[in-house]
Specification:
Length: about 375
C-alpha cells in the first residue's frame, strides 16, 4: 500500500492522460453529481456531498475539500460500457441487395475515475451478462477491454446505500487497476493506494510514491469500517432468492403497484439493468439502413409484448418481475444477485418506493407503511 498526498492527485490523472485515456469522473451538473469527461482534479466535485432518501436527492456544499465526499448519483458506468444508443451496423443498397458498410473501429479509451465498490460489482455483473454467456457482446467487449478503472473506497455512505448488506462494498476488493482511499486525519489529507493490475502497477511506478505508514494504513482502514457501520439502508439477504420465489402471490405486490408509476426510472439508473430494444431505420429511398440498440425497461408495456399479446399487462406484474429478477431469478440465470445495494432505484423513484422496505414486508408479512406520495398518484394498473 502506498500513499498519495492530495496535492499530487493530478500527477496520477496526468499519467493516465499521457497513456491516451480520456478521463471520465464525477462532476457537479444540474444540481447533482454525474459522470462526464474531466480534464483535471479541479473538475471533480470538491467539497460537495449529497443527502439521499427515498425519492429525494439534495446536493450540499460540505466545504471540506474532499474530492470524493459523495457516494453515487443518477449516472452509472454502464452508460459508457453499454451506451443508451448503440449502432450495431449500417448498410447501403447495392446491385446485389445490400452491403454492410464497414465502420471506423475507433474504440473509446476511458479511464473511469472514482468508481465505487458497488459499481465494481455492477461492472462484474455486466461482464457476466455480456461476456461470459453463450454469446459475447462485441460492442461491450471492446469498450470494457480498454477501460482503466481507478476505484475510490466509500468513506461516507449515502442515505439509500446498502452495499454492505449485498457484500458489494464499501471497500473495493477486486476489478480495479488502482484503488484509493481518501483520508482526513490529524490535519492531513491524503490517499492510500493499492494496485489491482499490471497496468495499475505500471502507472504507479511512474509516480514514485512512498509506502503508507502504519498509522496511515490504520486511518484508511478505520474510515472504510466506519462507512460499513453507517449504511443508510439494510437488507436481510439470507434465503432471499427462495423467499421471493415463494411470494409471487403475496398481496403486498398490489400495495406497491398502487404507488408505482411504471416510469422505469429505477431500471435506467440501476447500474446492472441491461434490457434493450433493437430498432431498424432506413432513409426514405430505401437505399440506406441502420440497426440501433437502445436501452429499454421491463416497466414499459411494450417490452413484454410477444406474438399475440403482452405477457405483463399490470403494474403488479411488472414491478414483481423487476424485483424478483434482481433478487431471485438472477441467481439461477447468472449465479449471482442482480443488485449491488447502490440505492439509486430508491433515491430516483419519483414516489419513493424502496426495495429494502418492500423486501422487509414480503419477508415479515407485515403491512406496508405507505410513505409520502401515494395521494394524488394515479393508479398505474392497466
Ligand atoms: S418503482 Fe418507482 S422508479 Fe420504478 S417504475 Fe415504479 S415509480 Fe418508476
Ligand atoms: S436494484 Fe437498486 S439498489 Fe440494486 S443495484 Fe439496481 S439501482 Fe442499485
Amino acid at each position: 500500500m502506498f500513499v498519495l498526498r492530495h496535492a499530487r492527485l493530478d500527477d496520477l490523472l496526468d499519467a493516465l492522460k499521457r497513456r491516451g485515456f480520456t478521463l471520465v469522473g464525477p462532476v457537479v451538473r444540474d444540481g447533482a453529481i454525474v459522470y462526464d469527461v474531466i480534464a483535471s482534479s479541479s473538475d471533480l466535485p470538491i467539497g460537495y456531498t449529497h443527502q439521499q432518501d427515498a425519492g429525494s436527492y439534495h446536493l450540499i456544499e460540505a466545504h471540506d475539500g474532499a474530492f470524493f465526499g459523495y457516494t453515487v448519483g443518477p449516472h452509472s458506468w454502464k452508460q459508457y460500457l453499454n451506451p443508451p444508443r448503440t449502432r450495431l451496423w449500417k448498410a447501403k443498397g447495392s446491385a446485389n441487395g445490400f452491403e454492410i458498410v464497414q465502420e471506423n473501429a475507433n474504440v473509446p479509451r476511458y479511464a473511469f475515475i472514482g468508481v465505487r465498490a458497488c459499481e465494481l460489482n455492477a461492472i462484474a455483473i455486466l461482464d457476466r451478462v455480456f461476456l461470459q454467456g453463450s454469446a459475447v457482446d462485441f460492442e461491450y467487449r471492446r469498450r470494457r477491454e480498454h477501460a482503466f478503472i481507478l476505484a475510490v473506497d466509500c468513506t461516507r455512505p449515502g442515505g439509500t446505500c446498502f452495499c454492505a448488506s449485498m457484500n458489494a462494498g464499501p471497500q473495493a476488493r477486486s476489478g480495479f487497476d488502482l484503488a484509493l482511499t481518501e483520508v482526513f486525519d490529524n490535519g492531513e489529507h491524503y490517499f492510500t493506494v493499492v494496485c489491482g493490475s499490471e497496468r495499475g502497477d505500471e502507472v504507479l511506478g511512474e509516480l514514485c510514491l512512498e509506502e503508507a505508514s502504519e498509522p496511515e494504513r490504520q486511518a484508511a482502514k478505520h474510515s472504510i469500517e466506519e462507512a460499513g457501520r453507517h449504511m443508510g439502508r439494510k437488507m436481510e439477504t439470507a434465503g432471499l432468492a427462495e423467499l421471493l420465489a415463494s411470494r409471487v402471490e403475496h398481496p403486498h405486490w398490489e400495495v406497491v403497484a398502487k404507488r408505482c408509476l411504471t416510469c422505469g426510472n429505477c431500471t435506467l439508473v440501476c447500474p446492472t439493468c441491461f434490457c434493450s430494444n433493437v430498432e431498424d431505420v432506413t432513409d426514405l429511398a430505401g437505399a440506406f439502413a441502420e440497426r440501433w440498440r437502445t436501452w429499454d425497461s421491463c416497466f414499459t408495456l411494450d417490452y413484454s409484448y410477444i406474438h399475440g399479446g403482452n405477457v405483463r399487462k399490470t403494474a403488479v406484474s411488472r414491478y414483481r418481475q423487476w424485483l424478483t429478477h434482481k433478487l431471485s431469478s438472477w441467481h439461477s440465470q447468472f449465479e449471482m444477485s442482480g443488485c449491488v445495494g447502490c440505492g439509486r432505484c430508491i433515491t430516483w423513484c419519483p414516489v419513493g418506493i424502496d426495495l429494502t422496505e418492500e423486501v422487509r414486508v414480503l419477508r415479515d408479512g407485515a403491512t406496508a407503511v405507505t410513505i409520502g406520495t401515494e395521494k394524488g398518484v394515479p393508479d398505474a394498473k392497466h
